[in-house]
Design a protein that fits this description.
- By secondary structure, this protein is mostly helical.
- It has one domain.
- It is 72% helix and 0% strand.
- The chain is elongated, with a radius of gyration of 18 Å.
């Protein structure tokens, strides 16, 4: 096991895992809602107005963003499983717990993210 993972206590890792999994489910739900709304707008031909096309564009962006976050979450869960979670991908120093609590799927510490 990586020394960084052992520095995060079991309780903190378990809580972060729950947050990651919950966030993943929320993003999957957002994708489903946006996809359903887009299908409805396309099926009933309501895409004719420019404001609805803008809404559709925003939904497309939201779907892409949610997919990207899910990918980050899956990678964070993999790092938890292989013992490298909580180590900055740039400087290889520990990412503070406070940073992980704010962005549990993050891969860098605050200085390296700037």
């Amino acid at each position: 096991m990586n020394t960084r993972t052992s520095e995060l206590d079991t309780h903190a890792l378990a809580e972060l895992r729950v947050i990651l999994e919950r966030t993943r489910v929320d993003n999957e739900r957002d994708i489903d809602r946006a996809t359903s709304a887009l299908s409805t707008m396309t099926a009933d031909n309501t895409m004719a107005s420019s404001s609805l096309r803008e809404i559709a564009g925003n939904a497309d962006y939201m779907i892409a963003d949610a997919h990207a976050i899910i990918t980050l979450i899956d990678r964070a869960l993999e790092r938890m499983d292989n013992g490298t979670y909580g180590t900055c991908a740039v400087c290889e120093q520990p990412i503070p717990l406070a940073r992980l609590e704010v962005r549990p799927y993050g891969t860098t510490c605050v200085p390296c993210s700037a």
